[in-house]
Amino acid sequence: MALPLPPRKQSRNFTFTQTSNRVHKHTRIREYILYLVPTGNFYHVLENFFTKSKELFAAGAWNYSIPHITLVSFFKAHEDVDFNDTVRDLAEDGRYLNRPMALELYTSSNFMGFFVKEDDANVLKRIALKFVKEISESIISDTIDGLDHLIACFPYCASANENKTSSRCIPKSSRSTSLEPHVKNLHLTLAYQFPSTIYQNLIELVEQIDTSCANSWELRLYSRDPRLCTKQVHKIIYSHSSREHDELDLRVGDYVYINSDAAQNSIDGWVEAIAHNGGNVGFLPLNHTERTSEINVWTLNATVPLVQVSDNDISTDAIDGVIHNNTRENDYYIDENRFSQSTTMEENNLVRRGRRRIIILRHGERVDFAFGNAWTQFSFNDQNYVRHDLNMPTHLPPRMTEDWDRDSPLTTLGSFQCQQVGQSLKDFGVNFSKVYVSPSYRCVQTANEVLAAMENYDLQLNVEYGLFEWCLWYEELGLPNFLSEKELGVIFNVNEEYIPFLKREDLEEILKESLEDFYNRSLSTMRKILSSTTEEGDILIVAHAINLETCTRELVGKEQRSRAELRNLLMRIPYLACVSILETEDSRYQLIEPPCLTLTHNSCSKFDWRILDDN
Description:
Blueprint lengths: L28 E10 L1 H15 L14 E10 L5 H7 L12 E5 L3 E6 L1 H18 L13 H5 L3 H4 L26 E6 L6 H8 L10 E8 L7 E5 L18 E4 L3 H4 L4 E6 L5 E5 L3 E4 L6 E7 L10 E4 L2 E4 L15 H12 L4 E6 L4 H5 L3 H5 E2 L2 E2 L15 H6 L5 H16 L4 E6 L3 H13 L7 E3 L21 H7 L12 H5 L6 H18 L5 E6 L1 H6 L12 H8 L7 E6 L5 E4 L23
Helix pairs in contact: 12-13
């Protein structure tokens, strides 16, 4: 969708410092904060409240982060300090919260929220103090006075000390610190600084919140760049390709930083901004953005469930038409001791003894996300493809330009990503016997590059339409005009004799597919693939980010997620993300460590040499 650009008056000098365009490259100091965040049913109840309350606020006046209780306020530390183990060690204290958290509603003319009742608040304060004690040697001092006052707030401090030789929980050498655990009035904010005209409407929404399901929580340690914390965060809602050397390229879904007074002082609707990805500085049309929560650009450094719900406490709820429960599997975190080649080889032996292993990959980096939705406008001349950037494909097969708009190929980096993953799979002894791919061109490309890196040139690709992503996303514009198996067979080793379990015309009939129906379609496709595959060896499936969830969730005995849960999950699935499930002795499946190293890299924005030209 195109949006009219406001006319620019003239080029202007940058107001951000010259170091701003590299703020993400060499950041050494970060600010960290520890949250307790609800999950499961209570999270969805709160999400429903925030969705409805947003409609009451005037445009741009709604303040929203994520529902949370702050345990430790912002403190500074070097970015290379690893707090993962420290956060995980806090989880054992969650055993004292073996029931729904006791919350008390409080409302006033400018604040609404839940305060944690005393008994549970003491448990959370103990956790906060334990965290402060453990990391006090790692923080960077802000010359704040000592923490002697904490002792009065924590009568159980001596028990928190492992040696129990002193009532001083914080080492004397560490008392000049910026660490500040919350020791009073622990609360979860619902709304604040709202106009009096909507007070009654907010009260009615707040009183509908049921706290009896507040029995599932997790600790989250976030961090941010302190040099950017005073700026507003805006999300790109319309793409834009730069037309002048001082403009930013905009891609839908990306984030930028803007000075708080920039919008008010703009003379032509253009403002100066810093791109979150890459840190480039430039001008952009403000009407192509919308202000969003700062937390969207924070880094999630560690997360661990604090409260485990027993099987006897499981209850189901219907949200957005999807049945789910309030249990939640542990989030993955980096654990160097967990991943080992010997473990993977043991799983390889199980595969050779008839136990099937399915490996599901998301495709590599796609051109339209890297260069914006308008990439075809400057890349084709009378249907002839012209390469304008080293990260664009060297060549593309003949096809209508509008078809590439809807069915993007991989970037050069995307192809390289696939090769690296393929090599890693080969190094860990993976041997594929069957490959199934979504009909999207980028998925077929990904599978081809992976197999080439594994030197498996004979294995054919089975194009399965049942592996395509959620059809509801295509309700307005319709499905892409996929290349046929015959057309793909000219370029790739595609099995043109394969009969898919779901055909294109079947997808056309379910463009209003509900999330529950999408889960069911994915499960049905997976079961048909498994029942039709009798050969020994691994099965490779290449599809989309959302398929990593929907193709495995119910196979491993989990309930379907809600829209809100799924949306948050998708933000954490990068290109070439890999999941693996292994058949158990009773013919069920379980999630296991993927037999492939993870792939991590930084972004690299387009460079314009003209910035060095004073003229």
